[in-house]
């Protein structure tokens, strides 16, 4: 099987504080507190579990580094 690596891309993300409904490319999804709301490179939004987010993304600036540390 061939292996592929995800291209580097900057995304905007905020930690979700209360339950909310998010319109994603795959329909409406319920997001829970503690998850991250990611806005992708084309403006698409989707929630991401905290553990998966931390395994997949790393801070790209000082502000993100601070949030990442404080909300662990």
Descriptive account of the structure:
There is one protein chain. With 72 residues, this protein is an alpha+beta fold. It has one domain (12-70). The protein contains two helices and five strands; from the N terminus they run βββββαα. It has helices spanning 50-56, 62-70, and strands spanning 12-15, 20-24, 27-31, 36-39, 45-48. A three-stranded antiparallel β-sheet has the order 1-4-5. The protein has a two-stranded antiparallel ribbon with strand order 2-3. It is globular. The model has no long low-confidence stretch (mean pLDDT 91).
Summarize the structure.
The protein is globular.
What labels describe this entry?
alpha+beta; three-stranded antiparallel β-sheet; globular
How many helices? The count is 2
**Rg (C-alpha, Å):** 13 Å
End-to-end CA span: 35 Å
Structural class: alpha+beta
User: What string, H for helix and E for strand, traces the elements in order?
Assistant: EEEEEHH
Strand residue percentage: 25-35%
Shape: globular
Number of domains: 1
User: Mean of the pLDDT scores?
Assistant: 91
Low-pLDDT runs = none
Largest sheet: 3 strands, antiparallel
Tally of DSSP β-strands: 5
Order of adjacent strands in the largest pleated sheet: 1-4-5
Share of helix, binned: 10-25%
């Amino acid at each position: 099987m061939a292996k592929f690596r995800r291209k580097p891309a900057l995304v905007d993300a905020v930690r979700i504080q209360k339950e909310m409904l998010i319109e994603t490319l795959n329909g409406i999804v319920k997001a829970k507190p503690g998850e991250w709301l990611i806005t992708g490179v084309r403006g698409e939004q989707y929630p991401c579990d905290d553990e998966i987010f931390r395994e997949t993304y790393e801070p790209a600036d000082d502000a993100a580094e601070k949030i990442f540390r404080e909300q662990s």
